[in-house]
Specification:
The protein is α+β, with helices and mostly antiparallel strands. The chain has helices at residues 2-27, 52-63, 75-96, 104-116, 118-124, 130-137, 142-155, 190-193, 197-216, 222-239, 243-246, 258-264, 270-276, 290-302, 305-320, 326-341, 349-365; strands at 161-168, 171-181, 255-257, 284-287. It has 17 helices and four strands. A hairpin with a 2-residue loop joins β1 (161-168) and β2 (171-181).
Length: 367
């Protein structure tokens, strides 16, 4: 009986297929065949053997204009912007109502609203930095300077020696503290050392930018400060490891005890540094770029405290610039985005706000 039913169903299906074929025959010429490859994005005038990328993507490249608020554009940019629009809805919902104090919604909403409140930001100017500037100005010896380096790391302020916590490359089941080279205001050491005309122009405009930022923040002596900062950052750049050598993870993995580091750098107190970093009980860490790190033993002490204070004020201001007044934010954009990256315009404020929330409270957004 079951076999009979199966055969009957098969006959019905076969009959329908015959009818379908007749209908399909009538409309076959009317259908447009579509493959999984978008040929309209290709440039078939290019020989794929000469330039396969242009052959596959040339049509899209030729008809697509890079938006004014971007220095590059592609499918990942489109996907990221769509994701930002979705995240915006989550954040704005959190910001729209009265959330319970201490809740994730309250934290997200308040954080986003504080960034978007340009009236408040403009009214405050650089006032939110005054406490940090005072902290820097109060540094009276190299022991306190060492402590400030650790404090700055926790605050997201660039200093010559950075640290972060990440899985151990050689033992991924455990986390370890890494120490690494940091502290340059320009993107990489080569910007300080190359002698071509464009590099010289960038260095000159960088000093002008520092001077402008000092003026906007109400700090005196911008031109002199810019010159001294460039001198100190150049000294750091000369000691730093080139980027091609930094890619060698094996060569840069130097697990060391704190006692060993103290013996290698007798003028830099690692116990003081780790204590201020909240890592008092840490007995070992991985030192990346070891030669650079050892060079700080002399460089830190051979540089006047006044020069370090000027440099640190700049680092603090530079790190906070996108979150201060529109004037300061725009000056920061003019140099780092327009001059260095060729981006003509800022992204819309809400997109910047979503990015800031994602960077700082991404785990709360993702809950």
């Amino acid at each position: 009986m079951k076999m009979y039913q199966f055969k009957s169903i098969s006959l019905i299906i076969a009959g329908l297929a015959i009818v379908g074929c007749k209908n399909e025959a009538r409309t076959e010429d009317e259908k447009e065949l579509v493959s999984g490859i978008y040929t309209e994005n290709m440039d078939t005038t290019v020989d794929p053997g000469d330039n396969f990328t242009a052959y596959v993507n040339g049509g899209w490249v030729n008809k697509t204009e890079i938006p004014a608020d971007k220095s590059s554009y592609g499918t990942m940019t489109i996907v990221r912007e769509e994701a930002e629009e979705n995240v915006k809805k989550i954040i704005e919902e959190a910001a729209s109502g009265e959330s319970e104090k201490g809740s994730d919604e309250q934290k997200l909403g308040d954080f986003y609203k504080s960034y978007m409140d340009l009236d408040k930001r403009n009214a405050l100017g650089a006032e939110p930095m005054e406490a940090e500037f005072s902290k820097i100005e109060s540094i009276s010896n190299y022991e306190e300077l060492t402590r400030y380096f650790a404090h700055a790391n926790k605050m997201g302020i660039d200093v010559p020696l950075g640290f972060y916590i990440s899985p151990d490359y050689k033992d991924p089941q455990n986390y370890v503290v890494y120490a690494s080279q940091w502290g340059l205001g320009l993107p990489d050491r080569e910007y300080y050392l190359k002698d071509d005309e464009r590099s010289k122009e960038i260095r000159q405009k960088y000093q002008e930018h520092i001077s402008n930022m000092f003026q906007l923040a109400g700090l005196e002596g911008g031109e002199k400060a810019a010159s001294n900062i460039m001198k100190l950052e150049t000294a750091l750049a000369e000691k730093q490891m080139p980027k091609e050598q930094r890619r060698n993870r094996v060569a840069n993995y130097n697990m060391m005890t704190v006692d060993t580091l103290n013996s290698l750098m007798p003028r830099f107190n690692w116990n003081t540094y780790l204590d201020a970093a909240g890592l008092k009980d840490q007995d070992k860490l991985v030192v990346m770029m070891l030669d650079y790190t050892k060079s700080l033993d002399q460089l830190v002490r051979n540089t006047d405290l006044s020069a370090w204070k000027t440099y640190l004020k700049w680092s603090a201001l530079n790190s906070a610039a996108p979150y201060l007044s529109e004037e300061i934010d725009q000056e920061n954009f003019e140099f780092y985005n327009k001059e260095l990256r060729g981006t003509p315009e800022q992204r819309p404020l809400w997109r910047r706000g979503v990015s800031v929330v994602n960077r700082n409270l991404g785990e709360l957004v993702g809950k």
